[in-house]
Design brief:
It is a single chain. By secondary structure, this protein is mainly alpha-helical. The longest helix is centred in the last third of the chain and has 28 residues, at 141-168. It is built from 12 helices and no strands. Helices cover 62% and strands 0% of the residues. It folds into 2 domains: 1-86 and 198-211, no CATH class; 92-194, no CATH class. The two termini are 23 Å apart. It has helices at residues 4-13, 18-30, 35-40, 42-45, 57-71, 79-82, 85-90, 94-109, 121-129, 131-138, 141-168, 172-182. The chain is globular. Helix 8 packs antiparallel against helix 12 and helix 9 (121-129) runs antiparallel to helix 11 (141-168).
Length: 211
Amino acid sequence: MFSNTFAVDKMQKAPCTCTVCARVVRTVIFELYSIFHLCLYFFVYIYIHGNRDMPTPETIFHKIREVCVTKMDLCAYDENIYEGQEGEDQLSSKCQRCLTITQSMQDVLLRKKGREAYRSRKHVWGVLDDLCSDLPMRFPIRAAQRLVSYCEDLVADYEEEIADAFMNSESPIKEICFDECTRKNKRAPSSWEGWKSPWAAVPREHVHFDL
């Protein structure tokens, strides 16, 4: 087996982004018992210790934070923003929750931008099917609980409309959340961008590459 020092050195030299790191950690956790994936993702695997039970979304969030924030310093995670009052304010209204959920879906879809499958029916429905259940992997537990509850209602009521917007609209977030965001205020929000997951951020000094 390689030493921890060797793996850390290799990881530090790799042009790795926060988003890629988060995706690798998630994949490693789900494929923990696969020899192929243990070899392919060894440089991340050595950081993942402890409970070998079936991982929960919350477990995956904390493991991504442990590896990509604490150990590798690839993600900019501010506790005051994501776990403090600022985070509470970000989700204080149904409009903001709608924007955040649809922003999260858009960020996941964007991973395949430039590929033939991008925004195809199969691509969009594949992401939509897991949208609500995957939110606890992308946001801390208190925020995720509020988002999941709203997300389940949103998808139950507007599943077809959400899919159609992401397949065909140039502004899917605005199209999906317009009624929710203007129903009470009678005025559109200043921005149609939702609160991003910390794992969707582009880090300061690294260049993106696909795994």
